[in-house]
Amino acid sequence: MNRKKIQLILVIFSIISACPGYPETGKGEKKAETYKHLETFANVLDLLQKHYVDKVESGAVLIGAINGMLGSLDPHSSYMSPEDFKELQEDTRGSFSGIGIEVTVRDGILTVVSPIVGTPAYKGGVKAGDQIVRINDKSTQGMTLPDAVNLLRGNQGEKVSISIRRQGLNELMDMVFVRDIIPHHSVNIEELGDGFQYIQVTNFQATTTRDFEEALRTAGRKKKIQGILLDLRNNPGGLLDQAVQLADVLLENGVIVTTKGREQENDMHFEAHQGEKKYTFPVVVLVNGGSASASEIVAGSLQDHKRAVIIGTRTFGKGSVQTVVPLPNGAGVRLTTARYYTPSGRSIQATGIVPDMIVPFKEKSRTGKGDATDTRLREEDLPHHFEQVGKKEVQEKKDAALDYTKRLAEDNQLHAALFILKNMAGVFLTH
Length: 431
Known about the structure:
By secondary structure, this protein is α+β, with helices and mostly antiparallel strands.
């Protein structure tokens, strides 16, 4: 073996050996086995550099190897370049410009987990389970998740085109969107009459719980709240701490969620606390196949404590915790480190949250005749699963907050949820 390959193996091996948590049991055997695989890796890299038809950029090849390594584990572990790592902060600290979809990679194909309500993708008809096969005429086959996200994002006002394959349709759907600011504000509230409130949480950002509590206070000052309808449909998740805090607002005590991982430091236990304000009104939660991660934590905790009735369809089933580990070069690794468990000990991984009352959403078919059942991608389907720019701000906010009161007759899930909510409060629908 030449000196260059030996140096490469030694460098990689020393990094692996220095990593915290390297298993002590059978350490010598593990090192020997790892050394053999690294030798094979170095031999393949050497062959590429010497004999591949085009000149090989070693850095790009190594990054590809890292992506392949992480991609073999689960759909949510990934490598982030320094640029990707920096952009990650935008997702939780504030707004960014894009079309507003949560995506994952399924069988090498970019797939929509959920469109974010009020965004260009949502208004344009993108649905959970849609496969994005092209972005700006570039194939997404084999594309990494960070690369796909980078293509979807861009400057506000710029156009991006995507081609979608949807189950039940023979032809691809070509869509063009104008990128817009995806706001950090994630809570919309609407009066449903008689003291009943509709609260829609589109995702879990840094200010979600604060905005949720302010919405309750504002509504309560106008009229006593008789009950709330919490809409978590198409909520792809977000920050764990915000999911815990929002559930805590509605719970007085008991476990909200626990996490269990391979290392003890990833075992966490979150409990509810008595707040300054005690809310005793009934709660109905709406979920569907686009409800994932943090939204499943909220639904699961409220369901287990019998604090709310869950209505809709089975949720996505993302029951895993990702930890972002920074690397010395400014890059980062998103690594799955634990699983979520509801208060009763249920793992929502792949199974999701099953509603207390299953009410499938029915919508008009593309021909305008009859109903079409909305199919959803779920975690269990994944491999290795264990508007126009320039309008006034007031108009944008109005467009983002959907008038569900007028849509009761059209949205059968919402209609059913409001019926149950009013019955729980002792008020019956008269229409």
